[in-house]
UniProtKB/TrEMBL annotation:
Molecular function (Gene Ontology), one example: flavin adenine dinucleotide binding
Origin organism lineage: Eukaryota, Fungi, Dikarya, Ascomycota, Saccharomycotina
Name of the protein in question: Squalene monooxygenase
Gene Ontology cellular component list: endoplasmic reticulum membrane
Required cofactor names: FAD
PANTHER family: SQUALENE MONOOXYGENASE (PTHR10835)
Enzyme class, UniProt record, top EC level: oxidoreductase
GO biological process terms, semicolon-separated: ergosterol biosynthetic process
Assigned protein family: Belongs to the squalene monooxygenase family.
Catalytic reaction(s) noted: squalene + reduced [NADPH--hemoprotein reductase] + O2 = (S)-2,3-epoxysqualene + oxidized [NADPH--hemoprotein reductase] + H2O + H(+)
Record domain Squalene epoxidase: where: 205-477
Alphabetical list of InterPro entries matching this protein: FAD/NAD-bd_sf, Squalene_epoxidase, Squalene_monox
Length: 500
């Protein structure tokens, strides 16, 4: 790494960390999760080293729509102002399109969700409230009756998080590539080996090392060699400029019997992200013609001019959609968190909400401990693994189950997909509960199970209606197959999330 980097271009303070001292914590990676852990621990009085291989603003198509649950965690951490002054777009709910029909799903009322917890030492001087800027208005975020999410350019949000962590006097930032997690003779983690531009390889020691090196994590295997994600599908993403989106301030989910799901959401005043699902880890050979023949015909008309322009410009980017259930951390001195620990389908935009809620819970769990008491810290981390499940399992299982329904590649799944849309059309609790799960404000896995199977039963009912009296014997047979399919796309994942 040091060979390819222009050392002179790197600010001096990013290269001067001392390897002589033992830090309370080393944080590997300054993506979404890293700066939040480092800030939280620093505010609890811990001496933190955060190592990032590239501090310049990243340009990625991930983590651009934050669900209300993620914003609530940022409030708990006293970091909500990371969404300010980046031309962020408030999100008030979702619009789901199914074969051209549309249903609007607003986010739930604040009164129906638990109050946001302010973590002591982290929240002060109003840092749990947004400030007024060109696109984020205090009255909308603070005084509105309903929860809000937000869309933003990922790199700009990250830059704000990094600016917040930079202001913490207890944090030392270091530019470098972590190349090894250091172990003692007893096989406990004791720090990290970092390759630093202009300095070479150096060992840094800490009582606790947090691995948050993201989706392509090199160090998640420190938990266990079989902690490996599976990839079943991908997203092809493009930027639409000045798009005429059908429902302002809504995330759009475009579904249909003949195509894969498409997501559309605004990320700045000018830019809208479109993510088109492809049901394989290997992308289509000719992306341009796939977008033109298999995606374009199903998009709302108002999007077509900006879509055509984006296809013509040909700036496609793709990302694998990985799934990885979390694993309990049993290694003294180590804590793996964020995408390195746990991943779900990005369809429901829940990754940042999971990561940030994990950070908030983690700070509450270990933030006041003395990290040199490594056994006590490990005991607390063992407990934390089970406590996080309540929140994270809902978002994770929902993402996988909804993707199976929305990408429906067999008739049973298509019946469930249609039933799900019809269920939303009924309104009331048929919208309130699903959107509360999606928003990350209703951490109740057993209620999710009940709602999911209610959708399945409703789908069977809709199928009976459509088959008519003459078709009812067939509909009865299909009912068993539909229920079995529903169980197959839901229960194994619930089991993995809750038991594993
Ligand atoms: C296609 C796609 C779309 C998504 N959309 C959304 C969305 O809309 N909403 C949402 O909530 N979530 C979304 N997600 C998920 C979300 O992006 C992740 O959950 C989130 O970014 C995880 O944060 P993290 O800090 O764990 O990892 P990252 O944000 O990936 O950060 C990892 C950091 O570690 C650094 N790093 C890696 N290796 C090293 C090393 N060896 N040494 C030093 N530094 C290192 C990297 O440079 C990076 O800065 C999406 C994911 C995908 C794949």
């Amino acid at each position: 790494m040091s060979d390819s980097v222009d050392v002179k271009a790197i600010p001096k303070e990013l290269l001067s960390a001392s390897s002589e001292i033992v830090y309370d914590a080393i944080v590997v990676g300054c993506g979404v999760v890293g700066p939040c852990i480092a800030t939280g621990l620093a505010r609890k009085g811990k001496k933190v080293l955060i190592v990032e291989r590239d501090w310049t603003m990243p340009d990625r198509i991930v983590g651009e729509l934050m669900q209300p649950g993620g914003l609530r965690a940022l409030r708990s951490l006293g970091m909500i102002q990371a969404i300010n002054n980046i031309d962020a777009i408030p999100v008030t709910g979702y619009s789901v399109f199914y074969n051209g029909e549309k249903v609007s799903i607003p986010y739930p009322y604040k009164a129906d969700t638990a109050p946001v917890e302010k973590i002591s030492d982290l929240v002060f001087d109003g840092n749990d409230r947004v400030i007024e800027d060109k696109t984020v208005h205090v009255k909308d975020f603070e005084d509105d009756d309903r929860e809000r999410g937000v869309g933003f350019v990922h790199g700009k949000f990250l830059q704000n998080l990094r600016d917040i962590v930079a202001k913490e006097p207890n944090v030392t930032r270091l530019q470098g590539n972590v190349i090894e997690i250091l172990r003692s003779k007893e096989n406990e983690v004791v720090g990290a080996k970092v390759e630093i531009p202009g300095r070479g390889k150096e060992d840094f020691k800490a009582h606790l090392t947090f691995v948050c090196d993201g989706i392509f994590s090199r160090f998640r295997k420190e938990l266990s060699p079989d902690h490996i994600p599976s990839v079943g599908s991908s997203f092809v993403g493009m930027s639409l400029f000045h798009a005429n989106i059908p429902s302002k301030n809504h995330g759009h989910v475009i579904l249909g019997t003949s195509h894969m799901p498409v997501l559309v959401y605004q990320i700045s005043s000018e830019e809208t992200r479109i993510l088109c699902a492809y049901n394989s880890a290997r992308l289509p050979k000719d992306i341009k013609s796939w977008l033109t023949t298999d995606v374009k015909p199903y998009l709302p008309k108002s999007l077509l001019p900006s879509f055509d322009k984006a296809v013509e410009d040909g700036k496609f980017r793709s990302m694998p959609n990985s799934y990885l259930p979390a694993k309990q951390n049993t290694v003294t001195g180590l804590c793996v968190i964020g995408d390195a620990l746990n991943m779900r389908h990005p369809l429901t935009g829940g990754g940042m909400a999971v990561g940030l809620n994990d950070v908030a819970l983690l700070i509450k769990t270990v933030g006041d401990l003395d990290f040199s008491d490594r056994e006590t810290v490990l005991d607390e981390l063992l407990e934390y693994h089970f406590e996080r499940k309540q929140y994270d399992s809902v978002i994770n299982v929902l993402s996988i189950a909804l993707y199976s329904l929305f990408a429906a590649d067999n008739r049973n799944l298509q019946v469930l997909q249609r039933g799900c849309f019809k269920y939303f059309e009924r309104g009331g609790d048929c919208i309130r509960l699903p959107v509360s799960f999606l928003a990350g404000v209703l951490p109740k896995p057993f209620l999710l199970t009940k709602v999911f199977f209610s959708v399945a039963l409703y789908s069977i009912y809709v199928n009976f209606q459509e088959r008519g009296i003459l078709g009812s014997p067939l509909a009865l047979l299909e009912a068993f197959a539909i229920l079995f399919t529903a169980a197959k796309v839901f229960t194994p994942y619930l089991f993995k999330e809750l038991i594993g």
